[in-house]
């Protein structure tokens, strides 16, 4: 027989509604469980697990509990132990991505450290062909100074070349 006191305690803990339909809802859900479970004790355990799962999902209706129970019954589960295994497998299936590959989790942003910045600068200097980070800084500085000095001259030459600002050939009307 249904352990009504324990189920009502769990029902109230979960914050599920307690109104004139609650008793009928509980009896309907328990009827389905008692009919399909191994015995009445297992039906009680499964009912309590369904209520707790609905509470974990922040559900606030008896329909949520009923849907959880239906899902378990359609999966052929007949006792609390099989429900635990089923839920554990479902959670493991959720954590896998497409084609069985695990999801790639983005890492949190970390503040760059002085060592990290130094290593990055050394790597860039090496990739750009400089001997050291200081040589790269001096070379970059010289390039920027040269570009700043020749800016007026370069801007004055643009119309003469027939190119747009992006470097494409301008349309010339004749």
Polypeptide structure, described:
The protein is mainly α and 174 residues long. The protein contains eight helices and no strands. Helix 2 packs across helix 3 and helix 3 packs across helix 4. The radius of gyration is 35 Å and the shape is elongated. It starts with a helix and ends in a 13-residue tail after the last helix. The mean pLDDT is 84.
Name some characteristics of this structure.
174 residues; elongated; mainly alpha; 8 helices
Q: Could you list the spans in which at least 5 consecutive residues all have pLDDT below 50?
A: none
* Approximate strand percentage: under 5%
Terminal Cα separation, in Å? 99 Å
Main beta-sheet strand count, sense and barrel state:
none
What is the N-to-C order of secondary-structure elements (H for helix, E for strand)?
HHHHHHHH
From the alpha carbons, calculate the radius of gyration and give it in angstroms. 35 Å
Arithmetic mean pLDDT: 84
From the helix content, strand content and strand pairing, which structural class follows? Answer: mainly alpha
What is the share of helical residues?
Answer: 55-70%
What is the β-strand count? 0
Gross morphology is: elongated
Tally of individual helices: 8
């Amino acid at each position: 027989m249904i352990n009504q006191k324990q189920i009502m305690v769990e029902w109230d803990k979960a914050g599920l509604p307690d109104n004139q339909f609650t008793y009928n809802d509980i009896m309907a859900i328990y009827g389905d469980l008692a009919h399909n479970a191994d015995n009445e004790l297992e039906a009680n355990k499964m009912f309590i697990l369904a209520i707790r799962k609905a509470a974990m999902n922040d559900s606030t209706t008896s329909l949520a509990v009923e849907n959880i129970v239906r899902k378990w019954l359609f999966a052929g589960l007949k006792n609390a132990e099989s429900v635990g295994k089923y839920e554990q497998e479902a959670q493991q299936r959720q954590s896998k991505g497409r084609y069985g590959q695990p999801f790639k989790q983005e890492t949190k942003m970390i503040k760059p450290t002085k060592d990290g910045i130094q290593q990055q600068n050394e790597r860039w200097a090496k990739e750009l062909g400089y001997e050291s980070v200081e040589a790269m800084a001096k070379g970059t500085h010289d390039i920027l100074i040269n570009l700043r000095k020749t800016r007026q001259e370069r801007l004055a030459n643009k119309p003469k070349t027939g190119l747009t600002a992006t470097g494409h050939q301008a349309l010339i009307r004749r």
